[in-house]
């Protein structure tokens, strides 16, 4: 249903460093960077995705009011664990260590961190072990 989503961040360089570290754990990477010159204004951003298609964007424009929850689907519980470990090392705040969340469904294995702007970022695997 969604093609892409974007978040405004308060410090693009800081957020890029965070997501550049975290995204490889979920088989994603920075797929595109746009400059203010390219957008014809003041917006600058970085798009992350898989197979070269940016589907998660961060960019200038001031901090998003309030916090958002973004959940990235991954293929294995090991990826959830790696996402959490790398995110914490990159400066995230713990918002829920890796583990089963059976109140969602029996195989829901996720981890939650707060990114540099306080957004609740999750990696989740829906597969049994």
Automatic annotation (TrEMBL):
It holds the Pfam family Glyoxalase. It comes from the Bacteria. InterPro entries: Glyas_Bleomycin-R_OHBP_Dase (IPR029068), Glyas_Fos-R_dOase_dom (IPR004360), VOC_core (IPR037523). Residues 1-126 form the VOC domain. This is VOC family protein.
């Amino acid at each position: 249903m969604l093609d892409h989503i974007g978040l405004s961040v308060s410090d693009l360089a800081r957020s890029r460093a965070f997501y550049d570290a975290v995204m490889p754990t979920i088989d994603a990477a920075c797929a595109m960077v746009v400059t203010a010159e390219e957008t014809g204004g003041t917006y600058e951003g970085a798009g992350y995705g898989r197979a070269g298609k940016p589907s998660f964007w961060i960019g200038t424009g001031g901090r998003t009011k309030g916090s958002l929850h973004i959940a990235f689907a991954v293929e294995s519980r090991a990826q959830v664990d790696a996402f959490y470990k790398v995110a914490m090392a990159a400066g995230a705040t713990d918002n829920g260590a890796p583990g089963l969340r059976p109140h969602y469904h029996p195989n829901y294995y996720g981890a939650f961190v707060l990114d540099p702007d306080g957004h609740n970022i999750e990696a989740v695997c829906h597969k049994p072990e």
